[in-house]
Amino acid sequence: MTTICADVDEAVADVADGSVVLIGGFGMAGMPVQLIDALIRQGATDLTVVSNNAGNGDTGLAALLARGRVRKMICSFPRQADSHVFDGLYRAGRIELELVPQGTLAERMRAAGAGIGGFFSPTGVGTQLAAGKETREIDGRHYVLEAPLRGDVALIGAHRADRMGNLVYRKTARNFGPVMATAATTVVAQVVQVVETGELDPEAVVTPSIYVDRVVAA
Amino acid sequence: MTTICADVDEAVADVADGSVVLIGGFGMAGMPVQLIDALIRQGATDLTVVSNNAGNGDTGLAALLARGRVRKMICSFPRQADSHVFDGLYRAGRIELELVPQGTLAERMRAAGAGIGGFFSPTGVGTQLAAGKETREIDGRHYVLEAPLRGDVALIGAHRADRMGNLVYRKTARNFGPVMATAATTVVAQVVQVVETGELDPEAVVTPSIYVDRVVAA
Amino acid sequence: MTLSKAEMAALVARDIPAGSFVNLGIGQPTMVADHLDAGHGVVLHTENGMLNMGPAPAADEVDPDLTNAGKQPVTELAGAAYFDSAASFAMMRGGHLDVCVLGAFQVSAGGDLANWHTGAPDAIPAVGGAMDLATGAKSVFVMMTLFAKDGSPKLVPTCTYPLTGVGCVDRVYTEVAVFDLTPEGVVVRETFGTTTPEQLADALDLPLRLR
Amino acid sequence: MTLSKAEMAALVARDIPAGSFVNLGIGQPTMVADHLDAGHGVVLHTENGMLNMGPAPAADEVDPDLTNAGKQPVTELAGAAYFDSAASFAMMRGGHLDVCVLGAFQVSAGGDLANWHTGAPDAIPAVGGAMDLATGAKSVFVMMTLFAKDGSPKLVPTCTYPLTGVGCVDRVYTEVAVFDLTPEGVVVRETFGTTTPEQLADALDLPLRLR
């Protein structure tokens, strides 16, 4: 059952120190900035954050990093023109980085959500990012074994929710939201608007309500 | 590039003897009956057919089976109240059967379409359907290694296509169509209606045009 | 006095927590839907790609594109969502369904389930989504008669039929009693009519615990 | 005389078959889009979840929810489709893209690509979708200068920078020549201006074949 929260602070009230937090967005598109601001107020620390990037500018994920709340980033593309917060922490040795190819990042979360114990991916074979991992030749092609990646909490940005918790997204802001929604114990979605149940087209629902624990309009 | 075919016979004209043919549908819902009828007329034989069921009544897949064109069925649920065609062939030893749990059937095709060389599934562990397969304990749970399942041709039923080949489906007739569209070398979709490019909502497209080789209204 | 199939279905429906996401297997488990209270907020999943499935339609409203796992016509409730088979089974295998209700040929004291194949040489095997459900759902409930037509128990020390899943069944509903399969053994949860736990202990080749 | 970046982009655009599904990497490869003929039917993919991406919008039509892989605003063409990151990378890794165009630090004669990490101790590594594209696209085209700022060749016998993918590059576009990387070795496909294959053979530490 999905809870419609009164505000973003209620939605993230129980995030525990040390949690693995999946945070949606590709750059700022789809990033749940208001939920992250609430998480900053809430105070959870020693977090492992999984997100495609490692923050842009000084808001959203970058603001969480700047507060020193994140012990480790798991992402594909930390270095950007406006990633100065992460860059500074990383160069100062104040944050761990696990770099994962973007498709492997998505697929590892998909595996966690889909009950898959591991999968053989061709991506990264023969590179530093496959170092130490099991490899196997299958039908003449080389693969590396990748593990599922689960979150305790997912914070995602969607466009609209109905009161049951079904979600639709908007354009390329969809990105990591749907797969993160399948991969975390508690899934919190920030949306622009909550509509009545029955107002979303059942053919166009992207994240069914079964994956969504809390929704907040923000 | 997607070709809009003039008729179903053109759409299946080049299916070769011995092909692996993925056929959509869950029972009759989503089954591309007109494409199958065209395949019967076309004459390809010694086929391996991958489909959830093994034919219902005397039309569609059941009609193809009745013509003796199928050497092997790969499916999850051949035995049904109206599967008398398959039942007769099987009992007479005239067709091979590879039985696969339904979720594994879908996921094996998803793996083929997604470039995954194999995956560890918890489904079927300790049962006859995992006999002889590699197993592994991962984080305290037991898994069986499953291989990708590719088709030479996929015949699927969708609801509408635009002229570029984007597809939308209707209700539970969606079932295996989208995953089969990713897993075959040549993908042929039978639709109720072909609309102009731009008439489908980009947020609601289920199978993007990249996966679709031929579309035919039937 | 033993329970009718409808009474068993009502019993299962009563035990499904409010707001659960539930898959009902084909056959007898489908009847559970008739006993779910709409205000209870239970959402039905069907393996062929839908959440929030509704009851059978009126005869003149049958839609061949809208069926359940048994290929029977169904309807769509407000808040429904459609998805493809790969997504539907990812949901099942990934542990997102709260409860599934399945029929069975046999269930073992350790929770092994046999419900897809009699193993008879001339039988045509069919598994469908049974193994995925048995493996993936958080709670697996079985509905079955306690005894086969030949009088042999179906709740057994070890299954003799081919398995659907290992150690997956949590609870068994029968016409005479409900059993919880726990790490400590088989617990008699409740009995019906004149049936006593002592009679069950005599009839079954199993150690039984009282609740 | 050497080719400008725009001329290189036009050259790549010319070589992309009509109707191809194409991913253009961030940086210089993005310029290829400006040279694709609309009538050619090339469909652009962006890794963040879209097919049929259009050009940059007018300043007053920027939509923060509609960006490319470089986080720059883009537009939507008729026939577009959106999908999530898992689906987008399944498409890439699964071999469904016909062509991708990437930048590079180095490419080896055997088609190894290095474009994600200089390996410098203080560098912050970032890979994004480069490994998925290099591994998944049917044809991998590289656009780069043939020589680094220090004058060293970037088309080399063996990459010294960390690899993005092994044996994945099919063709290299540079300001002085285009090379095909074939199982038989590096083939000079065409040269520009006054550059001759002999000059290239002198400048590169590689055996070269003429087309």
UniProtKB/TrEMBL annotation, chains A, B:
Gene3D superfamilies: Glutaconate Coenzyme A-transferase. Pfam families: CoA_trans (PF01144). Keywords: Transferase. It comes from the Bacteria. The keyword Protein biosynthesis does not apply. InterPro entries: 3-oxoacid_CoA-transf_A, CoA_trans_fam_I, CoA_transf_BS, NagB/RpiA_transferase-like. GO terms for molecular function: CoA-transferase activity. Belongs to the 3-oxoacid CoA-transferase subunit A family. NCBIfam families: pcaI_scoA_fam. This is 3-oxoacid CoA-transferase subunit A.
Automatic annotation (TrEMBL), chains C, D:
Keywords: Transferase. The keyword NAD does not apply. One of its GO terms (molecular function) is CoA-transferase activity. The keyword Thylakoid does not apply. Transmembrane segments: none annotated. SUPFAM superfamilies: NagB/RpiA/CoA transferase-like. NCBIfam families: pcaJ_scoB_fam. This is 3-oxoacid CoA-transferase subunit B. It comes from Nocardioides zeae. The lineage of its organism: Bacteria, Bacillati, Actinomycetota, Actinomycetes, Propionibacteriales.
